[in-house]
Amino acid sequence: MNRREILRRSAAAGLLATPAAGLLAGCATSGGGDEGDGGAYKGTKSEQNPLGVAEDAPLEVVIFNGGFGEDYAKAHEAMYKERYPKAEIKHSATAEISKTLQPRFVDGSPPDVVNNSGAGQIDFNGLVSQNALADLGELLAAPSLDTPGKTVKDTLLPGTVEVGSYDGRFLVLNYTYTVYGIWHSTKLFADRGWEDAKTWDDHIALCRRIKAAGIAPWTYAGVHPRYMSWPLISTAIKLGGPSVALAIDNLEPNAWKSDAMKTAADAWHQIVKDKFILAGSPGLDHKQSQTAWCQGKAAFISCGSWLESEQKDVTPPGFNMTVAPTPSLGSGDKLPYEAIRGTAGEPFMVPAKAKNVAGGLEYFRTMLSRKGAQDFTKKVASLPVVAGATEGVDLPYGLSTVVKALDASGSNGFNWVYNNYYRKLERNLVDAACGEFFSGRIGPAEFLDQCQKGADSIAGDSSVKKYKRSA
Amino acid sequence: MRQGRLPLILTFLLPPLALYGIFVLSPYLQAFQISTTDWMGYSAQADPVGMANFRTLLNDGYVWNALKNNAILLAVVPVVTIGLGLFFASMLTMGGRRGRAGVTGVRGTSVYRLVYFFPQVLSVVIIALLWKEIYSPTSGLLNGALRAVGLATPAWLGDPRFAFWCVLAVMVWSNVGFYVVLFGAAMQAIPRDIYEAVLLDGASRTTMLRKITIPLLWDTIQVAWIYLAIAALDGFILVQLMTNGGPNFSSDVIGLRMYDTSFGSENKFGYASAIGVAMFFLTLSVAVLALRTARRDRIEYS
What we know:
Chain A is built from 20 helices and twelve strands. By secondary structure, chain A is an alpha/beta fold. Chain A folds into two domains: about 35-175 and about 345-405, 3-Layer(aba) Sandwich (D-Maltodextrin-Binding Protein, domain 2), CATH 3.40.190; about 180-340 and about 415-460, D-Maltodextrin-Binding Protein, domain 2 (3-Layer(aba) Sandwich). In chain A, the strands form four sheets. In chain A, strands 8, 9, 10, 11 and 12 form a five-stranded mixed beta sheet that branches. In chain A, strands 4-3-5 form a three-stranded parallel beta sheet. In chain A, strands 1-2 form a two-stranded antiparallel sheet. In chain A, α2 (about 70-85) runs antiparallel to α16 and α19 (about 425-440) packs antiparallel against α20. Chain B contains 13 helices and no strands. The chains are: A alpha/beta, B mainly alpha. Chain B: Pfam families: BPD_transp_1.
């Protein structure tokens, strides 16, 4: 069998997971070959049309139907349609991105815009290594749609381009700005006369008072314990500086066992040792633990800034959730207390083989216009990556604390991306280690060992493409 | 007339055979072929790597860990399910004490039969979500009951000591009802006079079950055994929804490994196909073994 034939066979039009029957199997039809017709629709570039959109080319958009719903996307599509009335827009939304779109990627006929998000997200490492994504560099250089004199890149919040870049190519547009921190209820704290602590020692002292008052200081998503890796790594980065994260992202040997990580793991072990965690937390999923927290059974929880909209239905009125950075370990910290992890999230991409690549980029330009971004904020109460998009918009309480925390953090903000580079490392391996550590079955040294073992297994796997970042 | 039969047969046989060929056989065959490539699933690019995927598989600790769990399922689920099924079915058909000579079920048999069948009517997804809530450490029914009587309240699905066994229990629970009905129906087919004769000879109910019912039900039990053995090698839906293999891979099963390798945390479709192929041969061997070891002479009622 020659290579060509293997290719043709592998280019199966559908791939059905039939776990019950016991086989993962491709279903052969005469699907497309390896030569896609990426960017078949091209228009003439001009000042009005810097990306060269064919004005009558159809545009297909697939949205992840999750916490944000799909209405915001319909609004963006309407804005696109306003500029290109002859374009026909096909909209669909699904919660299962990978299962729905995998056959179409193989077939060579993917949609033009994909919101690759959620639990059924397609692993970016694989997409990038298979050259399945269109380069978005042209978009960055194009002028902003409604901010005169600025390119699209100029309107983005810092870090947006970096987090979507692989080996220096900007491939993924992360549309929302997410802040990761420790959350508490302002109302609960005011009622009890507690004040959120800025140093680790004060935090532990506060936990003691909370526990004495009959409330569990902490809870966490025991089924997805990686939520607790976020504050732990943040603590280490604030102690040792951004190089701690850089080493982890670049899979450097013993990156997980750096001094900063050791100190941070030792510190966090305190809340396990002193039984500051709500009993039964290891068996709760993210929704259950967040609900327990909203019911006042626990005082602190680690989460990203999607928490407020995710908990909308069960948050009691006046709960006033507030995000705070991780407490400082001491005066030796390289970053100030205010430094918080902020990053662009909610990934959007244009497949390399999409028929209307230019239209996909133009759709992104619409999303990133001031009008598009403000409409998004109003509809889903979240921050887009466009600077100043929240001006003049009435923000819900939690989101307003997010904006404040971001302002205070300023240029001290930090982030890591190993979870984007190597999905399995965070989702499976570090996740499992966190589960063992925060349920008290292993100590800090074993925890870091297990994380390092996971990172080493990725580093040693030749079938996984490696990425490096320098800053 | 003879000439007329062939077109008729072809008309009825070809379409289903073609469908079977396209949607069952060809995917199976392709999985074999894909398992020898490094296909990553999102492009048509797939290079043959020979047996490399299978070599990786042999050294993959996570796969072996999942296989170990499947082996436990295989050893425990069929035995417990068939045991419980036989017990309940015989209680329902001949457990009654009314009239010492007659062979009847316990009081309320029809109600029990209906209730036992309930889990079979629910979709597996609903069963998984239902039990996930029952096992919930803070608000679950189980810990609520334990708390009420002052016992310890473990984290069940959040504790590696219990998570796997919790899922196993649900697997048994959701299957027993079907086998109660299956065995019950088979028991109805056993002539009453055999039982009456045995009762007259003074046999106890356990002897009756052991010496009469089980031998006469052997064909049915054998079928049940094979079904359950194959189900035990799967277990994917319950595990994925209840624990997703956790905590720390303690409840992982081979089907979930395959899913996670392709659609989950990675997209190594070639490697996942290799796991699938391994699973195919395992399932096949288990089915053949179960048939072989359970083979006995067929008893016919005259």
